[in-house]
Amino acid sequence: MDLQEASKELNIDYNAALTRFGGSEAIYQRFLKRFLQENTYNELEQAWEKGDYEEIEKKAHTLKGVAGNLSLENLFSISNELVQTIRNKQYENTQEIYQRLQEDYKHTITVIENIN
Amino acid sequence: MQKIRKEIDRKNHKFLITAFLLVGFIIGAVLLITASGQFTNSLEDMGGEIPQKIKSTQETYFRKNEALLKTVAVKIQELKEENRRNINKDQLEKVINNYGKILEVDNAKIYAVIDNKYYTADNQENEQDYTKTEWYQKVKETNNGEIIYTNAKYSSQTKEPIVTAAMKIAGTNDMLAIDIFPERIATWSDIEIFPKGTSYYITDAAGNIIHQGDSEQNTKTNQEEKHIDEIYSKLKIKEEEIVNLSSESERISSRAGLYTIETYNGWKILVKTSYGDMLNSTRIILIAYYSTTVLFSILILYLAFSERRAEKGKSLYSRITNVLSDSYYALYLVDFEKEEYTILKGSEYIQSIPQTGDYNSFVEFTQNIMEKEAYEEFKETFSIENIRRLVRNNVKSFGGDFRRAFNSEFKWVNVRMLYSEEYVRKNRTEVIFAFQDADARKEKELEEKEVLRESLVAMRSATQTKNRFFSNMSHDMRTPLNAIINFSNMAISQPDDKERVMDYLRKINISSSQLLELINNILEVSRIEENMPLITKTQFNIAKSLEDTLMVFKEQAFIQHKNFEIECNIKHDYVLSDWGKIRQIINNIVSNALKYTRKGGNVRVEINEIEGKFVSKYTFRIVDDGIGMSKEFLKKIYVPFERETRFHSEEMNGTGLGMVIVQNNVQTLNGQIEINSEPGKGSEISIVLPLETIKEIEEENKDESKEYLQELKGKRILLVEDNELNMEIATEILEMQGVKITQAFDGKQAVDIFRNSVEGYFDAILMDVQMPVMDGYEATSCIRRLPRRDARSVVILAVTANAFADDIIQAEKAGMNEHISKPIDFKELQKALTKFMKKG
Predict the structure, then answer these.
(1) Quick check: B547 and B586 in contact, CB under 8 A?
(2) CA–CA separation, B333 vs B199, rounded Å?
(3) How far does CA B368 lie from the centroid of its chain?
(4) ipTM associated with this complex
(5) Partner residue facing B823 (CB), from A22, A27, A68
(6) How far apart are CA B334 and CA B251, in angstroms?
(7) Between vectors from CA B99 to CA B97 and to CA B104, what angle results, nearest 5°?
(8) How many CA atoms lie within 13 A of B237 on its CB side?
(9) Measured CA distances, B489 to B374, B475, B591 (Å)
(10) What is the DSSP string of B317-356?
(11) A100 touching B, CB under 8 A?
(12) CATH topology of domain B704-839
């Protein structure tokens, strides 16, 4: 899978992303790969296990920032949703969002892993 | 005052002791002189001296023991006060041993009954037995610390006689007893100083022999012994016969005499002397002198102890009164059994009341100084019956506040009835009435109450206005919402009639806009209420903006058949200000003017500019001939949620928030507002806003990004970001633009790096907001407060994924120049950086 195909798969605004990285596919790809080592999602998972909403919000917020920087639109919007929901203290709705986040993250990781 | 009195007491006391000593010695000396002169001449008299001497020795011994008893009694009372009645054996033993040594009665065995518990220095005594003992039965009947002596018993082991002296501890039912062993009296060994041939017997009140002895031991003739025995057997039978002993004894022998004498506690001393041996006079005289001295010393010792006790009591009393006097201006002791009062400390204002007297007369007296209502209550509450009831119910402190006249002035006073449980236990029937000045406290209390009452009223009215607001609000929101629902339903039902559908859609659009405006107003007010007005200054063409805004109203006026005139005299079209705020002001006032003007009415808007060098005053005058406002309403016009409800409500679609927003915006822009209105005649509203004028507006640069890139090259930026990947991306991209990046992974690092940098090194700081250790807001505040020239001028941009309004407000508060949302739009970043760096 090349970068462009992956972008389609992950709902990435390819042109906007490239612009962000100065038009360099190489740099963009490097950073996408770099996302595989990113620890924020794991930390979010740990916070979720503990049910520590404050920590969950923080981690989701960071994930949102990273996803945004990498133009991972789906992940960006789901983490944003999680942040907003916790901010509004609608904890009962977080389970469903978190599940979607989990699925999307796994999908994203798989796709990025397959970029070559 | 109390101290001085105490001092005097002490001096008196010392004087007394000295005087006693002096008298004692003088008497002793006189005795010495007279005795030495007369003794040889009067052997008969001499014979009487011996029992006297024994008596005094005996009595001295009793006094010593009594003094010990009394001292220990006082000590026990003290211990009880200190330990709140829990007295333990060790303490008691200590007391007994100490005082025993001091008084040289260390043979004594002391035991006590305290709070019906039996204590003894050793554990030999059987506890159950004490109530059956002779001393207990005797003491039980006594009062006032009287000391009783039991008859002699004989120790089962040593056969020596034992006598018990006992007393009640003053004011309590506690008892103290001491076993005396008369045999062990040290002075008996001085018997050798008796003339030869003298023998003596001491018996207790019941005639049991306590002690016997003679000057020549074991030389008693059988005959003599037989006689003495006879006499004693008689003594035991009939006490009154003792009186006749003297004459009877004379018959025993012409050379011998028999004398008897009784001690104060009923013991009898019997002495037989042989005249022939009584010439050894010098010795006798010495003895007489010694014994007198001893007697007096003991007397003085006893006096000293009783004095000390009295003083202790007194000092305790005065100490308590002292302490209470500081807090209370008057103290009364009231005996509720005798129904009497005693003034402990008198009020300066009450002179006409005697020191002690009938309690009811005291109560009646208070009538003169108390408020009538208070008096009635006081009389009832503090009736003797009620006092008794309170004491019975164990109410230790009872009282309240009342107003009382001090001369002509009324002041708040607190009265409290106090009593001690101990009092009751001691069968005392006294309580203390303490009067305290409570004016300051009471005034404060009343004030607080008033404040509370007022805030309650304010809260209630706030709730009322809020409730009214919500009911209005729901009506106001329902109207456009109903329109939207109805028109959309109609559009759905007639999808083919294009013209109609278009009309419905337009109507839906208008209603939606109305609803949006309403919601915006509410949000704006809630923001105002939190005191967080935001100013966003931009350059804009005020003439054009005003025209655009007012044209909408002109159209609306035309539809509603109202006349709408605009007059605009502005020289500077471009200003730097917050157009949003100005628009809100104009919108609210003009829409109100139109709303409250009837069909065919007139609304006129005049805009003028009073020129200044950099700042011009723009005046807005909005005049209508509508229904106007009442004076009462004008007073409340800036209160949120208020609107003049007697206006026809069906015409109203406002929220009562408009004028609040107007006033707040005018204030935020440093302007002024004036309202003149009269019901039925219309309103005139004048607003003056000082606005910064601009001569020319910058042309929009089409190739802006390239220009910015150019300007970013070589700039030094401190990048603060806790997430590594984000940090890498931002660093990478900015470095691609030729920016020199320094990284900091939390707020604290950022502060440290900035602090240690050369002044003016950094052109800007890009600050993440949410970070561990120290967040971006705090770090910014820290940097802004650093004592260096670039602390305030360095550009700090907040970078966060949260673009909530509070985040923007907080960023501004912390001292950040601008807020960029994350993911970083690099164009936006470059724009912002360029904008502020230029300024700097």
Answers:
(1) no
(2) 59
(3) 35
(4) 0.86
(5) A68
(6) 66
(7) 90
(8) 7
(9) 75, 21, 30
(10) HHHHHHHHHHH-SEEEEEETTTTEEEEEE--TT--SS-SE
(11) no
(12) Rossmann fold (3.40.50)
CATH architecture of B328-437: 2-Layer Sandwich (3.30)
Q: Is B37 on the interface with A (CB under 8 A)?
A: no
Query: What distance in Å separates the CA atoms of residue B282 and residue B46, rounded to the nearest whole number?
Result: 12
Is A69 part of the contact surface with chain B (CB cutoff 8 Å)?
yes
Place domain A3-113 in its CATH homologous superfamily: HPT domain (1.20.120.160)
Class of domain B2-183 (CATH, top level): alpha beta
Structure tokens belonging to residue B61: 């011994």
- The residue with tokens 């709408």 is B564
Token duo for residue A5: 């195909």
When scoring B726, B729, B767 by the number of chain A Cβ atoms within 10 A, the one with the most, hence best to mutate, is B729
CA–CA min distance A1, chain B (Å): 23
Residue B731: φ, ψ to 5°:
-60, -50
Say which of B723, B736, B802 has its CB closest to residue A22: B736
- For B662-695, what is each residue's pLDDT tens digit? 888 888 888 888 888 888 888 999 999 988 887 6
pLDDT at B240: 39
CATH class name, domain B533-694: alpha beta
Of the ranges B216-220, B318-322, B604-608, the best mean pLDDT one: B604-608
In this prediction, residues B114-130 reach a mean pLDDT of 64
Q: Is A22 on the interface with B (CB under 8 A)?
A: yes
**Through-space distance between the first and last CA atoms of chain A, rounded to whole angstroms:** 6
Which of B743 and B74 is assigned the larger pLDDT?
Answer: B743
Angstrom distance (rounded) from CA B606 to CA B624: 12
Per the CB < 8 A criterion, the answer to whether B58 and B269 are in contact is yes
**Chain position carrying tokens 């910014």:** B780
Per-residue pLDDT, averaged over B245-265, amounts to 56
Residues in chain B: 840
pLDDT tens for each residue of B601-621: 999 999 998 887 778 889 999
How many whole angstroms separate alpha carbon B625 and alpha carbon B646? 18
d(CA B220, CA B216): 8
Write out the two tokens for B19.
């005087």
pLDDT exceeds 90 at position B622: yes
Q: Considering only CB atoms, which chain A residues are within 8 Å of B822?
A: 64-65, 68-69
Q: Which two tokens stand for residue B320?
A: 């308590």
Count of CB atoms situated within 10 Å of the CB of B87:
20
Structure tokens at B765: 């700081």
Q: Would you give the distance in Å from CA B743 to the centre of its chain?
A: 54
Q: Is the model more confident about B187 or about B139?
A: B139
Find the helix or strand (DSSP H, E) in which B620 lies: strand B615-624
Domain locations in chain A as residue ranges:
3-113
Tokens of B595: 């709303």
Distance CA A57, CA B330 (A): 67
DSSP 8-state secondary structure symbol assigned to residue A3? H
Q: Is B571 helix (H, G, I), strand (E, B) or coil?
A: coil
Q: For helices A40-50 and A94-113, give the axis angle rounded to 10 degrees.
A: 150
The predicted model gives A52-66 an average pLDDT of 90
Distance of CA B211 to the CA centre of its chain: 67
Note whether B266 and B235 are within 8 A (CB).
no
The rounded distance, in Å, linking the Cα atoms of B578 and B666 is 11
Residue type, position B619, single letter: T
Least confident of B3-17, B637-651, B706-720, B777-791: B637-651
- Which is it for strands B716-720 and B574-577: parallel, antiparallel or unpaired? unpaired
Which of B572, B566, B565 shows the shortest CA–CA distance to B543?
B572
